[in-house]
Automatic annotation (TrEMBL):
Top-level taxon of origin: Bacteria
Source organism (scientific name): Ferrithrix thermotolerans DSM 19514
Family matches, as InterPro entries: aa-tRNA-synt_IIb, aa-tRNA-synth_II, aa-tRNA-synth_II/BPL/LPL, Anticodon-bd, Anticodon-bd_dom_sf, Pro-tRNA-ligase_IIa, Pro-tRNA-synth_IIa_bac-type, Pro-tRNA-Synthase_IIa_type1
UniProt-listed CDD domains: ProRS_anticodon_short (cd00861)
Protein name: Proline--tRNA ligase
EC id: 6.1.1.15
Major site of localization recorded for this protein: cytoplasm
UniProt KW Cytoplasm keyword: yes
All residue ranges annotated as the Aminoacyl-transfer RNA synthetases class-II family profile domain in the record: 33-467
Family of this protein: Belongs to the class-II aminoacyl-tRNA synthetase family. ProS type 1 subfamily.
Assembly with partners or alone: Homodimer.
GO cellular component, one term: cytosol
Name of encoding gene: proS
Length: 573
RNA sequence: CGGGAAGUAGCGCAGUUUGGCAGCGCGCAGCGUUCGGGACGCUGAGGCCGCGGGUUCAAAUCCCGCCUUCCCGACCA
């Protein structure tokens, strides 16, 4: 491609809306252009990167045995009503009202894919099968940001597996899981699969693929020694060895304090301390009340300085519901009366590490100090109930956990029977002639988000630096001063057309700009290899090959360029 | 949805305090000089000053309402 023909104009300054460096460069180098918040156009260079990334995904999914399809982006609202997700995903759904009815712009495609394939997967002999598509998704994100990182319209590669039993589902899952690992490895970005929470999609086992990055909006916990890795929403905390319950030192008396203006840990700490009993947040016990799957009342006990992580299957009691339980005084709840009111008490593992606590007094306006575990209150069950922090013990081996800031680039789920039990078409006929539900899996890769992640990972103060596998072009030929020198122009042309003949994806900067501008633009655009043709080297019959990533420049005779480029691109030919 | 900031040429910004010709840099077009790391001179094109209302002889500037964008938070397969 001749750069003079390319629809491209680089910008010297980034539009002020862009904050992330990758976003600034993608705008400045003419890859994308914003239409509205979180809505982007892909210009020629950007589209080529998109195609490269998509093709890597396509190749790996094809070779793990899944088949490409294309589902509609526009869904009749009925399929969302049938699955009940019209309510569950109401916050992100983009709705369309038309003369002919109400529609939803698909944010994900579980409903649509079942409608598309159930007739073809109607017998056990049709299973297993995995299909995928690479398609635009729509989500009304409350806050799109960082360019392609988080947008309202984005491209995702989403796959769906259908199996007749759980074992089959696990096998299909691991095929896609392996393919995902290969896909991200080809893009050369750092990533780790981590255990994850299943959120609104539902289901059981699932992993998120996380790429560590400064601009990440997610965290995952990683164990330094045993390989445990889990998203912060799913990570659990182990316990420390210390078992304070048996410690024989004198235990304090249970004392009530009148603290009327002090609901909540922060205010309570202050109020109790002011009354002469110095107390710190971690010495308090936060008592939350939840309802579990069986509609039982559960009290969750968490150290006062920790954020609670409500286990899946439970939900916290909402404010109006407190009226039903007169013995619960919101802001002043304590565990001392749990037993008499048949509340099941679950405490975080770390609660074992202290013998006594300050906590709510179970009377409006009162807190207590000296509530002794085992004497003043009992715990029915211990489990991890806190959002993990740096340095917490690993739930598997007890070593320290580290939190890593990262971006979610993929997510794989074993859905099991989640959708098949809701959607009546999601079933097949077994060998015995009976109807059975599919065991499903679903899998997503944020294709356009990956462009942002790769760009963010590979850049320097001059611009982008694409890995060869996703770069819009592999090589750019840069004649310096071609306007004045016929020879430079011809040599550059020869090299360029030679590269094209070798099926190298080459670009030539034939724009006849001053050398500084041309070189700066090529650095900004980030094509991995530059062949610089200039008067200095040409005097000696040589040209230079510059490796964008490390800036190294090598002079060589013109004839050697094709061989050298082939080597750099790792091709045999 | 809560808190904050900002909307002036394609991009970056000044001008708004104190109402009085709509400006600067980059980019764009033409001519010339320059030419191995974002050169220079001259000439030129390009504006609904976010939108709507109001005050005023006069509004980018003051007042009211709205919209959009960005940042922080809440939210998030």
């Amino acid at each position: 491609m001749q750069m003079s023909q390319l629809v491209l104009k680089t910008l010297r300054e980034a539009p002020s809306e862009a904050k992330a460096r990758s976003h600034q460069y993608l705008l400045r180098a003419g890859y994308i252009r914003r239409l509205s918040s979180g809505i982007y156009s892909y210009l020629p260079l950007g589209l080529r990167v998109l195609a490269k990334v998509s093709n890597i995904v396509r190749e790996e999914l094809d070779s793990c045995g899944s088949q490409e399809i294309l589902l509609p982006a526009l869904h009749p609202v009925e399929i969302w009503e049938r699955s009940g997700r019209i309510k569950k995903m109401a916050d992100v759904l983009m709705k369309v009202e038309a003369k002919s009815g109400d529609f939803v712009l698909g944010p994900t495609h579980e409903e649509a894919v079942i409608e598309a394939v159930y007739q073809d997967l109607s017998s056990y002999s049709d299973l297993p099968a995995t299909v995928y598509q690479i398609q635009t998704k729509f989500r009304d994100e409350p806050r799109s940001r960082y360019g392609l990182m988080r947008t309202r319209e984005f491209i995702m590669a989403d796959a769906y597996s259908f199996d007749s039993d759980q074992e089959g589902m696990r096998s299909s899952y691991s095929k896609v899981y392996d393919a995902y690992n290969k896909i991200f490895a080809k893009m050369e970005i750092p990533f780790e699969p981590v255990e994850a929470d299943s959120g609104a999609i539902g289901g059981d086992v699932n992993h998120e693929f996380m790429s560590p990055a400064e601009i990440g909006e997610d965290y995952y916990a990683k164990c330094s020694s045993c390989g445990y890795r889990a998203n912060i929403e799913a990570a659990t905390r182990g316990s420390k060895d210390a078992d304070a319950q048996g410690v024989g030192s004198e235990l304090p008396e249970l004392l009530y304090h009148y603290t009327p203006e002090a609901p909540g840990v922060e205010k309570a700490v202050e109020a109790i301390s002011d009354l002469g009993v110095p107390t710190k947040a971690h010495e308090m016990l936060k008592c939350l009340v939840a309802i579990d799957g069986d509609q039982r009342l559960v009290m969750l006990l968490v150290p006062g300085d920790r954020e609670a992580r409500v286990p899946s299957g439970m939900r916290l009691l909402e404010d109006p519901e407190f009226e039903r339980y007169p013995y619960l005084h919101k802001g002043f709840i304590g565990p001392m009366n749990a037993k008499e009111n048949s509340i099941y008490v679950v405490a975080d593992l770390s609660v074992k590490e202290r013998s006594h606590f300050a906590t709510g007094g179970n009377k409006a306006g009162y807190h207590v100090t000296g509530a002794v575990l085992g004497r003043d209150f009992q715990v029915d069950e211990y489990r991890s109930l806190v959002v993990v922090r740096d340095g917490d013990p690993c739930p598997r081996c007890g070593s320290a956990l580290t939190l890593i800031r990262s971006v979610e680039i993929g997510h794989t789920f074993q859905l099991g029977l989640y959708y098949s039990s809701i959607l009546e078409n999601a079933r097949f006929t077994g060998p015995d002639g009976q109807q059975y539900p599919y065991y499903m899996g679903c899998y997503g890769i944020g294709v356009t988000r990956l462009i942002a992640v790769i760009a963010e990972h590979f850049l320097d103060d001059r611009g982008l630096i694409w890995p060869v596998s996703v770069s819009p072009y592999q090589v750019v030929v840069v004649p310096l001063g071609a306007a004045r020198s016929k020879e430079i122009e011809e040599v550059a042309e020869t090299i360029y057309s030679g590269l094209l003949k070798d099926n190298v994806e080459a670009l030539i900067d034939d724009r006849k700009l001053s050398p500084g501008v041309s070189l700066a633009d090529c650095d900004l655009i980030g094509v991995p290899y530059q062949v610089v043709v200039g008067s200095k080297s040409l005097k000696e019959g040589q040209v230079e090959i510059k490796v964008r990533r490390d800036g190294t420049t090598t002079k060589m005779p013109i004839e050697e360029v094709p061989t050298r480029i082939r080597e750099l691109l790792g091709r045999s030919l």
